[in-house]
């Protein structure tokens, strides 16, 4: 097994860290120990001062998190590095503490919106940013070297300390509140769906501490129920909003970096509309300089149209918040995000945070004295159809017979009032066909035509 891994040098890192099923490669106990030692070695090799190296580790509410935390912390400490354990915390909370506690790296144990039986590891650098592809490659190289040699390249006569950091959840809640300093939510009712995840222990406190009345559901995790409800399925929250006459509903996912809103009428407000609301507010406050925000290839065409009316440019990137962050940094921008609810406010955090997003929306609601339903009217969504096609191979689309000609015909039907996006899933054997346009019937016809042709040519049966 080891020899095959070395020859193929399989890529361990996916679009968001290393994920899998605990107990199964690459998340076996042995591999976790190798991964931890590789991270430690990478930090020791680039150490530039005599300052003690520290790593902070957090986890979501999955049952497997405690064992992974134990293995990682012990195998990092054995190489002389101190480890701070902040316990159950959101991914953005972990990113915050890396910098706040002056650590050289951070590890978040989470598989984000995946099911409870999955888990994963996300790495952060000293500035609180997710590891770059170069950082990941360095760790991977050390991992495979260790699998070959079965020896440690670096050892330490003195072990590092493993320290439990107290009160992390309350401390992070206070930080979130500080981003809307002076916001008084007295008279507001907030409906909250914590998805049985990492935000559950403290999310209510964030809003109650600002004076809001809070109704919270899915907030007593068992370790087995993470992501049942929450941002990936906000239907339950819709009913809670209506039952409690809430001003806003907020659904986060298991690791708290995704936020989907529900307005007072029970209508879902996705990431695209949220970006539109915030972008208009910042533009009118003369705080959106340069006049641009970042979206992804999945951002609704209506967002682009609305932003153009504001005089704001939409820069698009690949799907994934790390690509959004990269575009923000390259273009010196402050706001960007995804339709799925991953929104980055770079003035405050290096990662998306569903609770932070909700606070910024509430701030706009309060300052404009308008309900979320009214604010959301600023953007008119174009009908969007997404079809997933199971494929036996991920053949370049330009090499699929007759597809280019069919695409040309379909684009002519849109007449410049929409777009077609074909892409393959990064994690599954799926071709994704996405079509947008003003006429829903035309959009559906085009999407079905393209999906059926791809199915006939490379479908998996």
Describe this structure in words.
- A hairpin with a 6-residue loop joins strand 9 (about 250) and strand 10 (about 260-265).
- The two termini are about 30 Å apart.
- The chain has about 450 residues and is of the alpha/beta class.
- It has 3 domains: about 1-165, Alpha-D-Glucose-1,6-Bisphosphate, subunit A, domain 3 (Alpha-D-Glucose-1,6-Bisphosphate, Chain A, domain 3, 3-Layer(aba) Sandwich); about 170-380, 3-Layer(aba) Sandwich (Alpha-D-Glucose-1,6-Bisphosphate, Chain A, domain 3), CATH 3.40.120; about 385-460, TATA-Binding Protein (2-Layer Sandwich), CATH 3.30.310.
- It has 15 helices and 18 strands.
The CATH topology label of the largest domain is Alpha-D-Glucose-1,6-Bisphosphate, Chain A, domain 3
- Overall geometric form: globular
What can be said about the biggest beta sheet?
6 strands, mixed
Widest sheet, order of strands: 1-5-4-2-3-6
The structure class reads alpha/beta
Low-confidence stretches: 1-8
User: So, the CATH homologous superfamily of the largest domain?
Assistant: Alpha-D-Glucose-1,6-Bisphosphate, subunit A, domain 3
Total of helices: 15
Mean pLDDT equals 93
């Amino acid at each position: 097994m080891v020899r095959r891994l070395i020859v193929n040098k399989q890529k361990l890192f996916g679009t968001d860290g290393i994920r899998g099923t605990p107990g199964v490669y690459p998340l076996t106990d042995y591999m976790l120990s190798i991964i931890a030692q590789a991270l430690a070695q990478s930090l020791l090799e680039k150490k530039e001062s005599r300052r003690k190296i520290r790593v902070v580790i957090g986890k979501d509410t999955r049952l497997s998190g405690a064992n992974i935390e134990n293995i990682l912390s012990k195998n990092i400490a054995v190489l002389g590095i101190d480890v701070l354990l902040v316990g159950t915390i959101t991914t953005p909370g972990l990113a915050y503490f890396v910098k706040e506690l002056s650590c050289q790296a951070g590890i978040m144990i989470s598989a984000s919106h995946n099911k409870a039986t999955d888990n994963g590891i996300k790495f952060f650098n000293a500035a609180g940013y997710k590891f770059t592809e170069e950082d990941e490659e360095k760790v991977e190289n050390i991992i495979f070297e260790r699998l070959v040699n079965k020896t440690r390249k670096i050892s330490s006569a003195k072990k590092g300390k493993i320290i439990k950091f107290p009160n992390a959840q309350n401390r992070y809640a206070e930080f979130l509140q500080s981003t809307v300093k002076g916001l008084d939510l007295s008279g507001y009712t907030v409906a909250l769906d914590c998805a049985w995840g990492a935000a559950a222990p403290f999310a209510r406190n964030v809003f109650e501490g600002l004076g809001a009345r809070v109704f919270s559901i899915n907030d007593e995790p068992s370790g087995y129920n993470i992501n049942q409800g929450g941002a990936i399925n906000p239907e339950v929250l819709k009913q809670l909003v209506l039952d409690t006459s809430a001003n806003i509903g907020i659904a986060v996912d298991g690791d708290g970096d995704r936020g989907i809103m529900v307005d007072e009428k029970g209508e879902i407000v996705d990431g695209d509309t949220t970006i539109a609301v915030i972008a208009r507010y910042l533009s009118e406050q003369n705080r959106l300089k340069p006049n641009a925000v970042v979206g992804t290839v999945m951002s609704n065409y209506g967002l682009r149209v609305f932003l153009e009316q504001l005089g704001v440019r939409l820069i698009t990137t690949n799907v994934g918040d790390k690509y959004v962050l990269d575009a923000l940094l390259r273009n010196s921008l402050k706001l960007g995000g995804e339709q799925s609810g991953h929104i980055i406010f770079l003035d405050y955090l290096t990662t998306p945070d569903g609770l932070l997003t909700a606070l910024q929306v509430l701030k706009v609601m309060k300052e404009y004295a308008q309900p979320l339903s009214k604010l959301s009217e600023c953007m008119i969504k174009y009908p969007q159809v997404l079809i997933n096609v199971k494929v036996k191979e991920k053949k370049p689309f330009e090499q699929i017979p007759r597809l280019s000609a069919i695409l040309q015909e379909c684009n002519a039907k849109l007449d410049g009032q929409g777009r077609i996006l074909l892409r393959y899933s990064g994690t599954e054997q799926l071709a994704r066909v996405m079509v947008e346009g003003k006429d829903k019937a035309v959009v559906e016809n085009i999407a079905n035509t393209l999906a059926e042709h791809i199915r006939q040519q490379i479908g998996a049966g």
